[in-house]
Amino acid sequence: MAVGESQSRVASPIRLGPAVCEKDAKALQFIDEMTTNTDSVQERVLGEILSQNAETEYLRRYQLDGVTDRDSFKSKIPVVSYEDLQPYIQRIANGDRSPILSSRPISEFLTSSGTSAGERKLMPTIYEEWDRRSKLYSLLMPVMNLYVPGLDKGKGLYFLFVKAETKTPSGLLARPVLTGYYKSDHFKTRPYDPYTVYTSPDEAILCADSFQSLYTQMLCGLLMREEVLRLGAVFASGLLRAIRFLQLNWKELAHDISTGTLNPKITDPSLKECMSKIVKPNPELAEFITKECSGENWEGIITRIWPNTKYLDVIVTGAMAQYRPTLDYYSAGLPQSCTMYASSECYFGLNLKPMCKPSEVSYTIMPNMGYFEFLPHDPNAQAFSRDSPPRLVDLADVEVGKEYELIITTYAGLCRYRVGDILQVTGFHNSAPQFRFIRRKNVLLSIDSDKTDESELQKAIDNASELLKEFNTSVVEYTSYADTKSIPGHYVIYWELLVKDPANSPTEEVLNQCCLVMEESMNSVYRQGRVADNSIGPLEIRVVKNGTFEELMDYAISRGASINQYKVPRCVSFNPIMELLDSRKVSVHFSPALPHWTPRRSC
Ligand code: AMP
Known about the structure:
The chain has 603 residues and is an alpha+beta fold. 37% of the residues lie in helices and 20% in strands. The protein has 21 helices and 20 strands. The protein has an eight-stranded antiparallel sheet with strand order 9-10-11-16-15-14-12-13. A four-stranded mixed sheet has the order 2-1-5-4. Mean pLDDT is 95; it is low at 1-8. Adenosine monophosphate is lined by residues 112-114, 177, 315, 317-318, 338, 341-344, 419, 421, 437, 440, 449.
C-alpha cells in the first residue's frame, strides 16, 4: 500500500450511522475506532499476545526472549499448519497443563470442520476468548439496524443447533465452536435485547437430539409466524434442511398446533416443560399450515408462511454459494444476508453492508480479534520451505484486487497459523481492508460443513476399487460433483470402468456397496453429516460409457485447453459437462446404508 493512500484513508474517516439507539451508537463507534486505527490496533494486539504468552514453550523454543515487536516476531516465528502444531496439541489433549502454546489455561478444544488425518482439527481456546467473540456478535445487529428498520418489533426465527461433544483423554471438552458458544453463559444468560429476540427457546437450541431440536424450533416458528421478521441458520445448507424437515413433518406439526398438544417424540424433559407453556390449540393456524404445505408447489413457501420476513440471515458465500438459487426459489427472492466471517480458530470480522447482493459480500476483518497476516496467493507456487520463508503482508497493507491466504496469531496460542482460506481484497473501510471470500484451499466437494479434498476422494476411490478386483474390473477415470438440487445434497461420483471380463462384470449389489465403501473412507465430518446431522444424502455412483472421459477431454480442448496440460477435473460444476456425463450414463447406484460414525475420535 502506498503511504499517501493510507493517509488519505485515515484523513477522512467514514462514520457508520446514525445509530437507532445509544447502545448501537457505542457499537458503531467501536467499529469506527477499530477500522480507522487498523495498524495500531494490530500492533497492540500482537504486543498483548506476545507478552501474555512470552513464557510459553512455543515462543521460548523460537527464542523470542520476551520481545513483542513485529520484526522480531516475523523473523523468528515460522508460518505453520495444523500438522506442525499437532504434537503440542496432542500433549495438551493428553493432560499436559504446562504453558505449551498459551500462558492461560486451555479451557476446551473447538473441533473444526477442517480435518487432519480424517478427524476434526482440535483448536485450543481460552475462556476469555468468548468475551472477544461475543463482542463481535454484539456488533452485528447495530450494523443491520442501519439498513433494516423496525427489527425490534418482532422476532428472529433461527435454526440453531448444538452437536455432539467428546472429551480428550485428560477430560478437556472437544466440541464445535457454536456448541461451545450456545452452552456458554454468554449465550444462556444474555441480557434481554429487543433486537435479538428469537422464536426458538434456549431449551430447543440446547437439545442435543437433532429431531427434537428442529421439530420444536419449527413448531415455535409456525406458532409465531406473524411475528417473524428475519429467518436464518448459520449456513444456507442448515436453512434448507429446515425447509426439507417441514416438507416431511408438517402433518405432525399441524396436528400439534390444531390440538395444542406436543408430539410424543419430544421426550427431553426440560424441552417438554418449556414447550407446554408455548403450544396452545389454534385450529385456524393448523388449517393454514395444512393448506400451504399439502400443495405440490413449494415455491415461495418461506414468504407464504412467514409473510413479514424482511431477509434471510444465512451464509451464502464460499461453499454455500451453490445454495443461492434454491433459497431464492423457496423465499421468492428475499434478500440473503451474510453477516459474519468466523472460524473455530478465531472470529474474523463482519459485513458492513449486510443487505448487499450475495455476489458482492465483503467482510471487514476486525483488527482486535487477533493478529492477521496475509500470504500473497499464487495458485501455481511451489510449497514454501523453511529456508525461504514467504513474505507476509500486514492487515493494513494488503492491496485491492490481490488474493491472499489468511494467516493468524491468536490469544489462545496459535502463531502464524495457516487457516486455509483464500481471500481477495475488494476495498477498504477507513484503513481496514474488506475481503471477498474466494474459497478454502484444497476443498473439492462440500455439501454442509464437510470439506473433502482430492486425496480423500482418491483414497475413497481406491478403497472402493478393491471390491471390483474379483470382477477383473478397474476404475479408469472418475470425477465428482456436489449435487445440491436434492435436500440434503449428496456427492455424485462419475466412474468409467474397464470391465475385462464382461461375462463376470460387477453386480448391482457390488456397485451399491462401492458407494458405501467410499462413504466409510470419508473424513469424520462427512460421516457425521450422514449419520447424526442428516445433512448429507447417500453417495451416488454414476457409471458412464467407455470413452466418456475422452469426450470430456475433447470438449475441454475445443474450449481452449492445452492438450499437453489437460488433466481430468476431479470435480465438475459446469452444466454442459454434467450434461455430457449424464447423457453417457449407463447405471446409477446409491449407498445402501449409513457409514460408521461415533462422536469418539479415533486419534
Ligand atoms: P470451522 O472452523 O469449522 O468453524 O470452519 C470455519 C471455516 O468456514 C472458515 O475458515 C471458512 O472456510 C468457512 N467460513 C466461515 N464463515 C464463512 C463465510 N462467511 N463465508 C464463507 N466461508 C466461511
